Amino acid sequence: MFDKRLRQKLALQKEKGLYRNPPVVDDGDGRTVTVDGRTLVNFASNDYLGLGRCETLRKKASDAFSRYGTSSSSSRLVSGNASVIREAEKAYADYFGYEDAIFFPSGYQANLAILSTLFGPEETLLFDKHVHASTVKGMQLGTAPFKGFRHNSMGHLEKRLKSASGHPVVVTESLFSMDGDTPRLAELAELKKSHGFLTVVDEAHAYGALGTGGRGIAREVADVALGTFGKAMGLFGAFVLMPSLYREYLFNFASPLIYTTALPEAHAVTALAVLSEVERGDGRRERLSSLSRKLTRLLTDRGFTVCGEAHILAVQIGSEERAHDLVTKLFDQGYFAFTARFPTVPMGQAIIRLSLTANHTEKDLEDFSDALFRLSR
């Protein structure tokens, strides 16, 4: 009976065009991936600055793991609270302009910790309806009531603020992972002055790639900010920036932190090297911005509706089946792209999500836009 139920649900996914069976990637260099012996131009990577394959970082990571070993072998609350991890956390807090920081094994885990632990029945969480799935899951696991507001609608948020029963906490992102757009941060700052709420901002897709020195774009409004190493920073894991009081509270009450093995010391050493690369990465950021503008122009000139204000672009398709068919054909033409379908996006609003990296060439963009135009006719 149990196996039958699983098979039925999988069959239904296939009928709806929502079945997921990703190809196995054999190799890659940041700009391309190899699948079944074929080299494809990769538009599905979040390695925005190209640091994931940076030779300097690879050497420093190798040296760090050789010196410190491969595992912390303990949670942070037992013997895993290594001095080098604290050094790196403080360096990140200083660089991004916060009192303190905590490293986590993943952004998903970090969002679970923040949203299920810091807030309780005395608060009301008001969240943008396009926030990441980990944010939603964190709220569901917590005890604070939560209500959504329309995506990037400061007017709707203000209505929610006026009717909130507990102390309001606004939860949003600085660069949305599927839409590629940003909230009206100046308007959000004005609302914050008027209503005095706390703000949690997921800057996972902005840190490293946007803002002065890659410091993101939401510091003016964010009391707590989440970043990931696994995107523009080319590593793995995540970090949360916050006041020292919040860090102390999480160390005492956050299950996703207390009951998990700490990241290894070598990770912290490599994270410090990453921070140096991010700080001097203006050239990479400028190139990424230029490539993003060019691809947007190429696609819109060919009649596509493209959303996105930075290095994440969402090409509007609509039908889940058509979107899947297009990325399959693009694969055959030598392009690795990702379709976001329900439940990642609302039903009937499927997109082809394009991620750019500073390692792409202008010819990559020109050839891709030509291919997509040809295949969509």
Automatic annotation (TrEMBL):
Signal peptide interval? none
Query: In what residue span(s) does the Aminotransferase class I/classII large domain sit?
Result: 39-371
User: Which cofactors, if any, are listed as required?
Assistant: pyridoxal 5'-phosphate
* Enzyme Commission code(s) on record: 2.3.1.47
**What pathway is it annotated to?**
Cofactor biosynthesis; biotin biosynthesis
Q: Name one GO biological process term.
A: biotin biosynthetic process
| UniProt key word Ligase | no
Q: Which InterPro entries match?
A: Aminotrans_II_pyridoxalP_BS, Aminotransferase_I/II_large, AON_synthase_class-II, PyrdxlP-dep_Trfase, PyrdxlP-dep_Trfase_major, PyrdxlP-dep_Trfase_small
Work out whether the entry's keyword set contains RNA-binding: no
Q: Which UniProt keywords apply?
A: Biotin biosynthesis, Pyridoxal phosphate, Transferase
| Catalytic reaction annotation | 6-carboxyhexanoyl-[ACP] + L-alanine + H(+) = (8S)-8-amino-7-oxononanoate + holo-[ACP] + CO2
Write down the Pfam families for this protein, in alphabetical order.
Answer: Aminotran_1_2 (PF00155)
Major enzyme class: transferase
What is an example of a GO molecular function annotated in this UniProt entry? Answer: pyridoxal phosphate binding
Q: Which family does it belong to?
A: Belongs to the class-II pyridoxal-phosphate-dependent aminotransferase family. BioF subfamily.
Q: How does it assemble?
A: Homodimer.
The name this protein goes by in its record: 8-amino-7-oxononanoate synthase
What is the source species?
Answer: Desulfoluna spongiiphila
